[in-house]
Design goal:
Helices cover about 40% and strands about 15% of the residues. It is an alpha/beta fold. The strands form 2 sheets. Strands 3-4-2-1-5-6 form a 6-stranded mixed beta sheet. The chain is globular. The N and C termini lie far apart (about 35 Å).
Amino acid sequence: MPYLIDGHNLIAALPDISLADENDEAKLVLKLRGFSTRAKTKCTVIFDRGLPAGTSKLSTSAVKVVFASERSSADSLIRRRISQTRDARNWTLVSSDREIVDRARRRGMRQVSAAEFARQLGQGDTAGSSIAGPEKPTPSEDDTALWLQHFGDAEDGDGVE
């Protein structure tokens, strides 16, 4: 069952990632990669204000990363995806935004609050069942190079503002 995730809403519920961190999205994507591997599922995570807008180079076959444009918002992209998803009953929405949750519920989509999903991520747990696997995946050299290119080296102060 694939997941549609309100990215910044989930980050706000995680104890180990701060919305003030300039690399918060990258850190969440790493967590979602581990989750998707353990759960053998796919995730689409949508964030506000990314440059460039659209599908990010951080995406993999298991985790699709989408940034809203300056003229849009993650909420509007999520609402559109909920409305346009043909097999909504097979998806799970991760968000605590009441309007988005209500829309998903009307379409028959399952919902998990950001706080509950954050607990699952922290426990390496999926839908209440323990799945073996590393808590934090080790990125490949290619992943590391891509992230440094995209976000810069935090030690050098060259990160994206």
